[in-house]
Amino acid sequence: MSENQNLLAEQRRSLILDEVRRRGGVRVNELTRKLGVSDMTVRRDLDALARQGVLEKVHGGAVPVVEASTHEPGFEAKSGLELTAKEDIARAAAKLVTPGAAIALSGGTTTFALAHQLLDVPDLTVVTNSVRVADVFHAAQRTSGPRQGAATVVLTGGVRTPSDSLVGPVADQAIAALHFDLLFLGVHGISVEAGLSTPNLAEAETNRRLVQSARRVVVVADHTKWGKVGLSSFASLERIDTLVTDAGLPDEARGVVAEHLRRLVVAGEPEDDADI
Fold first, then answer.
1. Is residue 50 part of a domain?
2. Nearest to 158 by CA among 219, 102, 210
3. Whole-prediction pTM value?
4. Which InterPro entries does this chain map to (predicted)?
5. Alpha-carbon distances, residue 68 vs 148, 198, 209, 216, 257 (angstroms)
6. 55-58 and 61-64 beta bridge pairing
7. Phi, psi (deg, nearest 5) at residue 64
8. Are residues 241 and 149 in the same domain?
9. Cβ proximity of 217 and 111 under 8 Å
10. Is 78's pLDDT higher than 70?
């Protein structure tokens, strides 16, 4: 991390969390030097990250939280993490959508960010099992009123999870009867061994149905999801057509992705022209 006194709180906390995960722990005095901020500022940042459940404060510093494979953070807890990365990923992913397409958006805070980027794409049909994603489109229509080219939104039924996704037999049956051009999939974890995974067994089955109904699968996930494994896997890496992520993805992970996926899009970085 480079010293920068003008970092926003969100940027500082993202850098702190990356450092904690990379090194297995940090000390307050190290962070004050690296970030160029006061001891009090660092401690406030650590307090905020500890409240979000992403690190544990210890005497003089912080260490990573070791999550159980069944741990599922709520939507609000996840929405405050990696905000800049999620916005960058959303903008990059939105470029893959063409007017008139039938797309699906799974639950998650990154797909929620993507939904905002799709509001001006005309004539979309959007299938989602996310209450939050559906609300983005419905709120826009309430604000602007009926307009030509507004998205048609199909919200599956189902049982609500802590991340505000709808899962279970009702959602699965609704999805199984549909077919869409593109699926944008948020994930809890992604790894070579486990593929795509989630801590929620019912959500794993619903995500599996989403993947089966999609002609092409685009995973939208920031770099912190790499190497995480939830309780249940629902798709292998080979089933993914495109991964859209941020520049924080390590070089080693990029090499692995290149071996297993058809396309890697790193938000903010140039790539070879290719059709997904």
1. yes
2. 210
3. 0.72
4. Carb_Metab_HTH_regulators, DeoR-like_C, DeoR_HTH, NagB/RpiA_transferase-like, Tscrpt_reg_HTH_DeoR_CS, WH-like_DNA-bd_sf, WH_DNA-bd_sf
5. 47, 11, 25, 31, 25
6. antiparallel
7. -70, 155
8. yes
9. no
10. no
